[in-house]
Structures are given as C-alpha cells and as structure tokens.
Write a structure and sequence with these properties.
This protein has three helices and no strands. The protein is mostly helical and 96 residues long. The chain has one domain (3-89): Chorismate Mutase Domain, subunit A, CATH 1.20.59.
C-alpha cells in the first residue's frame, strides 16, 4: 500500500464531499426562495422524509450504514436551513 496515494484519494473525496454539500445547500436555498415567492411553506416535511428514505436505501445498496447516511443528511438539511436564515437577515430574530 502506498500511504501517500491513499491519503491523497481521501483528500480528493473530502473535497468532493464539501463541494457537493455546498452546491446542495445553494440549490436548497434557491428552492426555498422560489417557494416563498409562490406563497408556499418554506419547508416540505414530506420531501425531507423522502430524502431520508432515499439516503438510507442508497446507503444499504452501497453497503454503508443507513443510520450514518440519515444522520449526515439530517445535518446537511439543518445546516441548509440555518445558513439560509443567516444569509437573509430579515429572517433572523432581533438581537439586542
């Protein structure tokens, strides 16, 4: 085993994960903005449940823990909601 090569592979995958998460959060933010202009609720619990179920199914298919997949997706969804509020100060509570 070439340790340097293996670590480089991990670094590349980590970069891909971060890039993908960033893209996902931006897309989710644009969907939330669209939903707002359409007068729809900001969140869609049914869709979030579908996403979690799909992530678990995909994890099982690839031999990865469904629990881990769901935990990661939940964190990403929560961060997307948090960062969207942060980028739109009018949505934040007044701070004194």
């Amino acid at each position: 085993m070439d340790l340097k090569k293996e670590r480089k592979k991990i670094d590349q995958l980590d970069a891909l994960i971060i890039t993908s998460i960033t893209k996902r959060i931006k897309i989710a933010a644009s969907i939330k903005d669209w939903r707002k202009t359409e007068g729809l609720p900001r969140t869609d619990q049914k869709r979030e449940q579908e996403i979690l179920a799909n992530s678990k199914r995909l994890a099982r298919h690839h031999g990865t823990s469904p629990f881990l997949a769901a935990m990661i997706i939940k964190k990403i969804i929560a961060e997307g909601k948090r960062s969207h509020k942060f980028k739109n100060p009018k949505n934040e509570p007044n701070q004194k």
